[in-house]
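Appendix B, record 7
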Amino acid sequence: MQSRDNELRLIYSFFDLTILNFSILFVGGFRADVLWHGHTINTYLLIGNLSLILTIFLFSERNVYLRDKFIDRFIRLTKRILIFTSVLIILDFLLLSRNFSRSFLLEFTLLFYVTQILFYRILYSILFYRRKKGLHTKWVFIVGVNDITRLFRKVIENSPLLGYHFAGFVDEDVNVAESVGTPNQLEELIEKYKVHIIIAYISFSS
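Structure tokens (predicted):
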């Protein structure tokens, strides 16, 4: 599981670096003072990539499976771009001479931020559609049928971006229409429905 998480972090980092380099080259294409000086654009690429790598270490990705809402992702991207900008400014003062354009740093940073938001907006839309169709989801059993567990079911079914798909209830009462079996049958039910997660609600009230 941990190796899978690390693999996804590397993939996200690759996309972020790709978007950053695209932003630097795209903005540089409209700047004669950058476009016609190879050493200048290479220096900006070096400073930009170094700043992003340091930012990734300082503000690593937590929700690698993108099960949060897009507004949460937007807030995380905003926080991270602020860290990126701070690191970029520090490296600028430490490593770049006055001949380099500070406005260019701000221009490609803004494009990088906007492009990241658009990229993740598209990615979330694709994931929402695929998970609503039952693809790339984890199947879930809920043990017990009552008002609370029905609420769990409603949350799962109304939030496809969470990446979970309701497989059915498991309950002692075989007469419950929503139940697919009893707890004693869990092993065979898990195998039959290929369930990944079991949610059990335990009430301590008398």
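Remarks on this record: The chain has seven helices and four strands. The first strand starts at residue 138 and ends at 143.
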